[in-house]
């Protein structure tokens, strides 16, 4: 069989892996055009996350907001599926890297995806408000739309917390950033409009939770919704690592989801 196409060149291979994120050559490492030796010791880890994702260093105000959001999501105890399965995996002899991967791989639409979903929702409210629709009406219309395909509203309510203890410090920092001119505040206004709408006629309100609060932060900082989940994964990986490491020191082998003395209910009729 004849092939009239030209043989690939070295340039073709180089272009196949073209990237604007990093440049690595003998004796040279650059991240977004900045030598790594200039970043080490002068730029924080959060600043480097921003640099790699956005192409430039954040302002101090942007960095503080991003750091607050990342800190808020690091851990939520071993009842969180991502933490629980990482601890189980850590007792199976697979190593920390695999235990962390096991935990991270549970972060899907249901566990770990609410921030991304909430950012989509708040973005719809914000867009309608910026187009001139009263924000209360925009919030009501968007929530009604979301509820046609899900009984859960992403970013609101919590199965443990009446008021999520991370709400005030996160939204408070966003409000400060609005006052300082760091962010515009449109996502904050959208989130509060949804929260107020949900509270109407209820004796027990449905406050915004950490997923909603971080969605506000990421939206105000200009991150695309899929990155809300990606940033949550980075944050939660810290807690997953800590729990997996702790579990390796407790001496258990093949840890199951329940102590051996407790047996699961057997459903004889199924």
UniProtKB/TrEMBL annotation:
One of its GO terms (cellular component) is cytosol. Coiled coil: none annotated. Its EC number is 2.3.3.16. InterPro entries: Citrate_synth-like_lrg_a-sub, Citrate_synth-like_sm_a-sub, Citrate_synthase, Citrate_synthase_sf. The keyword Cell cycle does not apply. Pathway: Carbohydrate metabolism; tricarboxylic acid cycle. One of its GO terms (molecular function) is lyase activity. PANTHER family: CITRATE SYNTHASE, CITRATE SYNTHASE, PEROXISOMAL. NCBIfam families: PRK06224.1-1 (NF004864). This is citrate synthase (unknown stereospecificity).
């Amino acid at each position: 069989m004849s092939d009239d196409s030209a043989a690939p060149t070295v340039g073709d291979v180089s272009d196949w892996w073209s990237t604007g994120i990093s440049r690595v050559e003998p004796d040279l490492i650059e991240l977004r055009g900045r030598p790594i030796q200039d970043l080490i010791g002068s730029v924080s880890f959060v600043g480097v996350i921003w640099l790699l994702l956005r192409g430039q260093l954040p302002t101090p105000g942007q960095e503080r907001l991003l750091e607050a959001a990342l800190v808020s999501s690091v851990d939520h105890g071993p009842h969180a599926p991502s933490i629980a399965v990482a601890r189980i995996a850590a007792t199976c002899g697979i190593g920390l890297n695999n235990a962390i991967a096991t935990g991270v791989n549970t972060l899907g639409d249901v566990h770990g995806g609410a921030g991304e979903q909430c950012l989509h929702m708040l973005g719809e409210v914000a867009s309608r408000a910026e187009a001139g629709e009263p924000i209360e009406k925009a919030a009501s219309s968007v929530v009604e739309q979301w509820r046609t395909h899900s009984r859960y509203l992403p970013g609101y309510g919590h199965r443990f917390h009446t008021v999520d203890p991370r709400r005030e410090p996160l939204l408070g920092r966003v409000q400060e950033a609005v006052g300082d001119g760091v962010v515009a505040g449109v996502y904050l206004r959208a989130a509060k409009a949804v929260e107020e709408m949900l509270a109407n006629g209820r004796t027990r309100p449905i406050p915004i939770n950490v997923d909603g609060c971080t969605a506000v932060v990421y939206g105000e900082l200009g991150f695309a919704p899929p990155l809300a989940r990606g940033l949550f994964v980075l944050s939660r990986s810290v807690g997953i690592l800590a729990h997996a490491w702790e579990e390796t020191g407790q001496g258990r082998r093949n840890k199951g989801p329940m102590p051996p003395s407790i047996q699961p209910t057997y459903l004889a009729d199924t």
